Amino acid sequence: xxxxxxxxxxxxxxxxxxxxxxxxxxxxxxxxxxxxxxxxxxxxxxxxxxxxxxxxxxxxxxxxxxxxxxxxxxxxxxxxxxxxxxxxxxxxxxxxxxxxxxxxxxxxxxxxxxxxxxxxxxxxxxxxxxxxxxxxxxxxxx
Length: 142
Description:
By secondary structure, this protein is mainly beta. The protein contains three helices and seven strands, in the order βαβββαββαβ. The protein is elongated. This is Nitroimidazol reductase NimA-like FMN-containing flavoprotein (Pyridoxamine 5'-phosphate oxidase superfamily).
């Protein structure tokens, strides 16, 4: 009989509260969006603000140009994913947020969670992705 430590990991669906708890510390996540040439995914530093994630990018970045909207108050459909995986134990979790991203005004920037990007250089384009759908999964040993 196999020991419990060698048992195959099981996949567990996570509820909204657990997903938000897991990503609450912030760090690095990935924004998925359509850049006009097809689906694209880029890593960003982020912070959680309620049911939204806040992230910054360069004003000249493709991410900024793709998420800007000319409609006042408009949003661009996007997704945001964060995971933590331990390849040695084959355990970890993944959280996906889907919703609308919009640029933050100067006033809005003052009232949201602070994001400190790791890369040097200007990261003057601030965005919020308001999650309309949050899902997650955890892979763990029984």
